[in-house]
Design a protein that fits this description.
The chain has ten helices and 14 strands. It has helices spanning 2-15, 64-78, 93-105, 119-125, 162-176, 190-210, 230-241, 254-265, 291-304, 341-352, and strands at residues 30-34, 50-53, 83-87, 110-114, 133-137, 155-160, 180-185, 217-222, 246-250, 268-273, 283-289, 317-320, 327-328, 371-373.
């Protein structure tokens, strides 16, 4: 995305650092700190001031965890702050709370938590650690019963308008010439649902503009995991065999399984969160969120305010979208030929101006003219 690229470039000039990669093997699950798996991120100290706690994935997932981690690394290394990451031993609120506490015991004054899965964990720890500043991405604190949505001033939350990013991807796929589309999400948390419903809306709008509503269809499914799995590959392979041309892989590491199926079928994939085109030749574009720069901007706010959240972040929920140049498709690696960057930029401007409004509703599927199989 042209505008997103400009934002990332400007931040890169400010911090004079390149985002770290994630090519090293994934360490075993642990609530103990792990060294950064990147040549650009020096081994972190035993104690740390800024900590990131991963969700069920790891920091080299080429997706949400990695995008957030790179923001931590960039800011910390540019400003002389010690940093580390911690990985829960299992997928549970108990494990996430234990891991957050382990990070605090190691000296963390700032804890970054990427993902909806941390909502009730942050709710549990925020009052007990008033001197620790928490950054929650893709969620807001609440108790397990969804009856108390208290957010204290030491917690800042960042949400994204994933429906817009998904919309751009669905629109692009149909404009590029694909007619049989698929959406495979990870766990059906709000962010993933917004990606999926936005994708359907974008494909529908493009189909109507081209007059091919009867030709365009979408298979739709949630895998229930953010990790690669043979069952996901099998499901994707079945879709491709049945004629699906491109699948939007919206769920962390599930893109690995979907790309494997795509390569065997000679089909295509759309990535998510980060520009994943570098990971596999089957990926034609990615529905991205500005995870890395938004973490850097938030940490800058915190430290510019003496180590506590400023007025724009303290106890607040900040929602970032096209108006903030924080969602979209990456244009620097554009590979589509029928749908051009100029056409995309024109569409983007219409979303920014609200000439086009993408629904963010997740309680019911969008009403569209194209066929969508939610039981695929």
């Amino acid at each position: 995305m042209k505008k997103l690229s400009a934002l990332v470039l400007s931040l890169a000039m400010v911090f004079s650092l390149a985002a770290c990669g994630g090519s090293n093997p994934t360490p075993a699950p642990s609530s103990e700190p792990s060294a950064a798996p990147s040549e650009s991120a020096a081994p972190a100290a035993e104690t740390c001031e800024i900590a990131l706690v991963t969700d069920v994935g790891n920091i080299d997932d080429k997706s949400f965890n990695q995008g957030a981690w790179e923001g931590v690394v960039n800011y910390a290394e540019a400003n002389g702050k010690s940093y580390n990451y911690f990985r829960p031993s299992e997928d549970s609120t108990v494990a996430r709370v234990e891991t957050i506490n382990a990070a605090i015991e190691k000296g963390a004054k700032v804890v970054v938590c990427p993902g909806f899965l941390f909502e009730d964990a942050i709710w549990e720890v925020q009052d007990k650690n008033p001197d620790v500043q928490f950054l929650l991405l893709d969620g807001t604190p609440h108790d397990a019963a969804y009856s108390d949505f208290t957010q204290t001033d030491n917690v800042a939350c960042i949400l994204y308008q994933e429906e817009q990013a998904g919309f751009f991807a669905g629109y692009a796929a149909v404009k590029e010439g694909y007619r049989k589309l698929g959406f495979m999400g990870g766990i059906d948390v709000p962010a993933v649902v917004r990606f999926g419903f936005g994708f359907v809306q974008g494909a529908n709008m493009a189909a109507k503009e081209l007059g091919v509503e009867n030709d365009v269809s979408v298979k739709y499914w949630y895998s229930g995991t953010f990790s690669p799995d043979d069952a996901i590959k099998t499901k994707a392979a079945g879709w491709y065999t049945e004629g699906t041309e491109v699948i939007f892989a919206s769920g962390g590491g599930i893109y690995i399984s979907i790309c494997a199926a795509a390569n065997e079928a000679g089909a295509k994939v759309i990535g998510v969160d980060k520009d994943q085109s570098f990971e596999d030749a089957s990926i034609i574009t990615s529905a991205t969120k500005a995870l890395t720069p938004s973490v850097e901007i938030a940490l800058t706010n915190l430290y510019d305010n003496g180590g506590k959240w400023g007025a724009d972040y303290a106890g607040k929920v900040v929602t970032l979208g096209a108006n903030d140049e924080c969602v979209g498709l990456p244009t620097e690696t554009w590979s589509m030929t029928n749908y051009t960057v100029d056409e995309y930029n024109d569409l983007y401007a219409k979303v920014v101006s609200s000439e086009i409004v993408v629904s963010n509703a997740i309680d019911a599927a969008p009403e569209v003219a194209i066929a969508v199989d939610y039981a695929a």
